Amino acid sequence: MIELGKKYKLKKIRGFENPDNEYYKVISFYNFDTVICKNAYGERFVFMKEFLIDPQKPDEIYSDLILERKE
Questions:
Q1: What pLDDT, on a 0 to 100 scale, did the predictor assign at position 37?
Q2: How far apart are alpha carbons 30 and 8 in whole angstroms?
Q3: Do 51 and 11 form a contact (C-beta atoms < 8 A)?
Q4: What is residue 1's predicted lDDT score, i.e. its pLDDT?
């Protein structure tokens, strides 16, 4: 469960290198599936809850999002 005021990491996307190990603090809920977060530098971001690693499911570190590369 994602909670207000707590810090979370983003899930990874399979097949993509992502060196981002940054934590994002939830500062507001936008609606039932979207949160507003800020990083350590005060920058604000909007994420769907499903892209944050839920502490109750720590093994689910990969997103179901599938990206295709077009050349």
A1: 96
A2: 17
A3: yes
A4: 85
